[in-house]
Write a structure and sequence with these properties.
The complex is a heterotetramer, with 2 copies of chain A (about 180 residues) and 2 copies of chain B (about 400 residues). Chain A is built from 4 helices and 8 strands, in the order H-H-H-H-E-E-E-E-E-E-E-E. Chain A is an alpha+beta fold and about 180 residues long. In chain A, the strands form 3 sheets. A 3-stranded antiparallel β-sheet of chain A has the order 2-5-7, with no helix packed on it. A 3-stranded antiparallel β-sheet of chain A has the order 3-4-8, with helices on one face. By secondary structure, chain B is mostly beta strands. Chain B is built from 1 helix and 30 strands. In chain B, strand 7 and strand 8 form a beta hairpin. Classes of the chains: A alpha+beta (about 180), B mainly beta (about 400).
């Protein structure tokens, strides 16, 4: 087997930047409505005790930046349009950082979500945080643009704790890695 | 000295016994005390499980490393759970009544969450649920996903098992279950999921919408392969990866309700003509679409059962469903709609003479319906654990 | 260290029979009211979704024997007066047998519970079933006669998966090992 | 070849980026896009944790082998959870701000639930929550219980740790934390729990109601020991094993509310005279008694906080409580009753200048009250995980 694990460290940004399949992007854009309230996988709802998942007594977390609006402890937050797992914001990390004690996966799946404040479509990298067991807080599952496992980086069912020292999954971040070329209207 | 001290400690707690036959001031109605019961005592299962039994995979989100498979008697009015099989860390499970074995494909760390990684397939006896042996999978590459059945499959008349790998390089390991060895590994760039194909081989779904069929030789190496182009449109009409099997024919449904059968009986997969849609109905916003994790099931004959969400739209494919639609594959018509008691994630049918529709709900409860009438029969409580996401009828 | 593990296999019945501290027994008897509804540890209540623990949608399990009355899937069943854990009756075993795939611990803690049908005080051995992870069904905790850890066999906080191949805890049985000498009125 | 295939697969999924600085048709209010964020990025904690931080042990009944300790900021209006430390299989936890370390004493199996057993103490850095090292405990004898603080304790100015063993033979292992070695083992027949005593030693509670104090030499071996008779009446008035500590004085409460202080400052434990009862009150059936898992706390000065159940009777001692009674140890009088929002299992006080009363509820929620007034301040949600049973203020 070729040694992919080292190579994959360069994937997240590298591959994403190097490609430009606009047709897919346009399709993604057409289906995103960042301001709506999204349903989540029933297990997420049940586990969170909230009709939309992610609730469970968590006080809202705001970025403080009007250009990045919404509650980062809620599944409905705009960056979470294709997230699947526990929100790191509720686990000791933040929307873009892993909790202490974990390691951030260098490779992951990618979503394209529209920011309702500036109406731009951002490419969001859902890097998993690894090496600590399931956080157990703020379970969310949203699947806008999610495709079956034949398209790995568009699929959130994989355990993306790959290329990390441990593949144990703790939580998921939603990191801005760029603005999509063809921003949806 | 140590021994003495412990005996002393125990005796100080003062528990005293008489013979169970000794006279006691009980009610006259029960002249004799209840008998002593043997220790140790461990229950066993029948070597051949009844057709009402299923395996329900609990993904266990709050402790993914401690997933389980519950052995469940769907006909039980009490005690639906018959036993629990370990299914650690994004495990996959296979069951073979012919072999009398349940197999789990799992990952372990020497310090639970850290340390040395070991991937292994464990072989469990169906009658005792005790491990009979294991096959260690080298290289730390076993694919970890929310559980799909098609990541761990038999071929070669259940003498071999196929394990999906993902690092994210994709490959399939071939395991000889009798010699308990990994005998080969087939590279599978750009393809995923494993559908047993022909006497000895498999097919996978590929990123461009094609199928890729591999025929294996007696040593487990690929002896031929073939690409079948344009089987699915992954952008607009992707197939759920988990089909319903009628013999060697797999019935797939797409995110938008298109039914496609694929024949895996030969060395090369063969999509069958006559694809059709499950149809539409009122009462949806914006429309009915399949939704859940395991969304299609069969009675083994002409009927398909599809779990449907009334909130169908892009991204709704894992939201779960509130109805099961029954489709006749001969007439390509919907013949019934079964309303569920709650939003469900997974459905399957038992292989009983009069099959039951087993429904794993999002809140963790498992319901049993009559597959012919749709009528609710009973709830099995949380017999599938915290997050039941996959139901297997052996 | 002396090798206790083998020796402990003989403990459960042997020690219990060989002792006769009637004062303690009498005290135990005085505090048992087998027919009452017992509260359980709040965690048991919360986990089971039932005010008394052990419910969670489980259909009643009857012995079929009028001399052994009650629901063996309920924390209130008379034999469970000092149980702490998941009821094996809900896990693939029964009130007195372990589920398939587990191993029954040869040593455990002992309670004395009154059978409301025959009014006898039975000595109940709460043997744990080991080698499979937490069953997760019918969590109960009752503590009649429970004493701190200085009295090991009167304490249900120990993991009694001792002397077994694995110390992983699955569920607890409630086995009749005899009738108490001084049956309470 | 493999590389190429994967790149192809990824590119087919079609994600395209422009520079974040590129013009985008955004609202005029935000002429620039949000900036890219760095990958990887992992949060760190302050080397010295604020006094509002506590550690909450989640026993995790539904996956005991996957227990955890949550690091929680009780002053946080959002993000109360600061991180999670593994606490596997009936683990115990110790924290030392002086050492900058959290220690966990755990048990692992090579195949999660079976295989080779390893007991080990892991040393975690308080600033990174990363492991710095471990001390393997030989013999498979580490005591596994629902977590008690007094099963894992420091002595010798936090240079050593003491680990309780139970097979059911009882002993205490002495660990040198700097050399990361087990240096001795002290037999402890008939006794349980570990209370650090004097400069270098410990005391345990014994089955006949006595205390047993052991003084350790520089090599970790016992150099003297002493039994203190009749400290507690285990039949009628047993002490909860977990006391509240004011320096080297431990305040115990009994199942029936009797308060007993024990001074552990010297080489031999010394029960202090002046035992008294928390008292009674109306509204109970049959009476108020302490109830829960961690039922007594202190403000570090004269006030004790005791978690009380209104359903006090034989067997109620773990039922949890609905009120916290505040007791002045100087006047031996109850000075306040704090009604809780729900039945609680564990209480503790922060070491802030104005201490907060932290309440872990039976339903898993964690509440913060003002310790002086009893007023509810905030809920921390499920910041202690599924089954929060022990709260530690470092």
């Amino acid at each position: 087997m070729a040694n992919f694990d080292k190579w994959t460290e360069r994937l997240t940004r590298g591959i994403a930047r190097g490609t430009s399949r606009r047709s897919t992007l346009a399709w993604l854009g057409a289906t995103i409505t960042g301001a709506a309230v999204f349903p989540v996988l029933p297990v997420a709802r049940a586990a969170s005790g909230s009709p939309h998942g992610g609730g469970g007594g968590h006080a809202p977390i705001s970025s403080g930046n009007p250009q990045d609006p919404g509650d980062q402890a809620s599944c409905d937050y705009w960056r979470y349009c294709a997230i699947d797992g526990f929100l790191c914001s509720c686990c000791g990390g933040s929307v873009s950082t892993c909790p202490p004690g974990t390691e951030m996966s260098p490779i992951t799946w990618i979503g394209t979500c529209t920011n309702p404040a500036d109406n731009r479509a951002y490419v969001i990298s859902y890097n998993d945080c690894c090496g600590v067991s399931s956080c157990g807080q703020c379970l969310c599952n949203r699947n806008e643009g999610d495709r079956p496992q034949v398209r790995p980086q568009s699929n959130n069912d994989y355990n993306w704790c790959l290329g990390t020292e441990s593949s144990i999954y703790n939580c998921s971040t939603a990191v801005i890695v760029g603005v999509a070329l063809d921003a949806p209207k | 000295m140590r021994l003495f001290a412990l005996v002393m400690a125990l005796s100080m707690a003062g528990t005293a016994l008489s013979s169970a036959a000794a006279a006691a001031p009980g009610k006259p109605a029960f002249p004799k005390a209840l008998p002593e019961e043997p220790i140790p005592a461990v229950a066993a299962l029948p070597a051949q499980w009844p057709a009402s039994w299923v395996l329900i995979h609990d993904f266990h989100f709050n402790a993914i490393l401690d997933g389980r498979v519950y052995v469940v008697d769907t006909a039980a009015t009490d005690r639906p759970i018959k036993g629990i099989v370990r299914a650690a860390q994004f495990a996959n499970m296979l069951v073979s009544p012919r072999r009398g074995e349940v197999l789990t494909s799992e990952t372990f760390y020497s310090r639970l969450t850290r340390g040395e990684r070991t991937d292994a397939v464990t072989i469990w006896d169906m009658a005792t649920l005790q491990p009979k042996g294991e096959i260690v999978l080298p290289g730390g590459k076993r694919q970890q996903s929310v559980t799909y059945p098609q990541l761990f499959q038999f071929t070669n008349a259940e003498k071999w098992a196929l394990v999906a790998n993902f690092t994210p390089a994709q490959s399939v390991s071939v395991l000889d279950l009798d010699s308990r060895k990994v005998i080969s590994e087939i590279d599978l760039p750009g393809c995923a999921q494993i559908y047993p194909t022909g006497a000895r081989g498999f097919t996978s779904l590929c990123a461009d919408g094609s199928l890729f069929s591999v025929k294996l030789g007696p040593d487990g190496q690929a002896i031929s392969s073939k690409t079948i182009e344009k089987v699915q449109d992954i952008d607009n009409q992707p197939l759920f990866s988990t089909p319903a099997w009628v013999g060697t024919t797999a019935w797939f449904v797409s995110f938008r309700g298109q039914i496609q059968a694929i024949d895996f009986s030969g060395d090369v997969a063969r999509p069958l003509p006559g694809s059709f849609n499950v149809g539409t109905a009122d009462g949806a916003a914006p429309e009915w679409r399949p939704g859940g994790w395991q969304v299609i099931a069969t009675d083994g004959a002409d009927k398909l059962y599809v779990l449907m969400s009334p909130n169908g739209r892009e991204g709704s494919h894992k939201d779960g469903g509130t109805e099961v639609w029954v489709i006749d594959t001969k007439t390509k018509a919907r013949v019934a709609r079964i309303p569920l008691r709650s939003v469900a994630t997974a459905i399957s049918l038992t292989k009983e003479a009069a099959p039951r529709l087993i429904v794993a709900r999002g809140d963790g409860e498992v319901d049993v319906h009559d597959a012919a009438t749709g009528a609710f029969v009973r709830s099995l409580g949380n017999a599938g654990g915290a997050n039941p996401i996959l139901i297997t009828a052996p």
